[in-house]
Known about the structure:
By secondary structure, the protein is mainly alpha-helical. The chain has helices at residues 3-9, 21-24, 60-82, 92-97, 104-121, 132-142, 145-158, 209-212, 216-225, 229-241; strands spanning 163-169, 175-181, 196-202. The protein has 10 helices and 3 strands; from the N terminus they run H-H-H-H-H-H-H-E-E-E-H-H-H. The protein has a 3-stranded antiparallel sheet with strand order 2-1-3, sandwiched between helices. The structure holds manganese (II) ion. Manganese (II) ion binds next to helix 3.
Amino acid sequence: MERRKFLSTVGLGAVAVALPAELLATPVFDFSIDENGDFKGHSFPELPYSYDALEPYIDKMTVEIHYDRHHRGYYKKYLAAIEGTEQESMPLSKVFAKVSKLPAGIRNNGGGYYNHTLYWNNMSPDKTEPSDKLKKAVDDAFGSWDKFREAFINEAGTHFGSGWAWLVMDANKKLFVGSTPNQDNPLMDVSELRGTPLLTIDVWEHAYYLKYQNKRPDYIEAFWNVINWDEVNKRFEKALSL
Ligand code: MN
């Protein structure tokens, strides 16, 4: 399906396209549930490397403050926002699927908690490569790897204000790029961009300002050097299998 058509089908507030139930029950996209699809509670995820591991692309102080203060802040505020509500015992994906009916504190902090977890895990200091299968899907969707890279970098670079850029797979297993404002993500029913998240970059200023100041494009180019393609390959395979 063309992206334009997809977006018009699932426009803001529409409920026409729901994610398949199986997708909501996979820990690859929801780390708050276990292998059996059962809710396992919330925990603040470990950073998969040291604060300085992504140098010189992403500097140590940025990673430390971003992870330990910003990310942890969203996590704590999310727990506070769901305390005593029925969302307290719900996986994140289930909360996101009906987030339009919930208080803004749940949407913003739940998104912040979830999105940053994906972000840290889709970066790595190790050299990794996209799989041949992923490259083929990218060629089919974008024409070439370079065109995909350009589209992703352009989306991240031109998203106005705070937010996130994504590579997602839609319900027809097609890849496309897009962005979401604030802490929204493609699993949320409020999002114009819907689908399975495969890769994401944080384009809030706190993600790059210490090292790159106003030069967001330089940060995005740097990010490209530390993408954990092993993780993206894994999410891609899982999304295909649903
Ligand atoms: Mn952030």
